[in-house]
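Hello forum,

I keep getting stuck at the same step: I have a sequence, I want structure tokens, and every attempt I make locally crashes halfway through. Rather than fight my setup again tonight, could one of you with a working pipeline run this one for me? It's a single chain of 204 residues.
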Amino acid sequence: MSDTGCDTSLGLLGRVQAGDGEAWRLFALRCYEVVRRWCRWQRLNASDTDDVVQNAMRVVLRKVGEFRHSGKGSLRSWLRAIAWRCRCDALVRSGSHQHEALRQKYEVAVDEIAQLEFQYEQLRRADLLQQAMLLVKQRVRPSTWNAFYRTAWLDEPFAVVASQLEMPEYLIYSAKLRVLKLIQEEFRKLESREDACVVVSEAS
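Reply #2:
Ran it on my machine without issues. Output:
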């Protein structure tokens, strides 16, 4: 199932996420076509297709600001996952016994997709956090980093760390807060940089 055009301009996606109404109309048309193709691939009838498309587009409008590009085809995959969920919801609400096996299949799939999305987001944030920590570690003194790492990461008592590093407890506490603040700043910069890459990559 090929959906050409949907991933061709991440610059368009960037403008949509920035609130550009004209960009949204063009983007919505492309998303609409992807979802309708998915419905045809699933061999849905006209009525079910209309319902899935309508509900999916509502979700896209609500969630497009949260979308993060993760490689070629990821936008199409995201749209298909939304369409799949809308179809699942319709099956669950229908209560039709003839669709019981299919409905159970969709319910399991929804749980699996949600779990995969959660795991992906956790891994993405963990990777950004690791990058931020490495950047900060290079900026501060070794004693400052050790004070932070042992109290914040290893959860060692302040008194023990202060004694072993031969530093007053208030300096240990200060070092922890300072490094935490620096990590938070670097993390936000990395996230902003990642978002910017979404906008500029393939924009030409």
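Residues 60 and 79 are 8 Å apart (CA to CA). If your local run keeps crashing, start a new thread with the error log.
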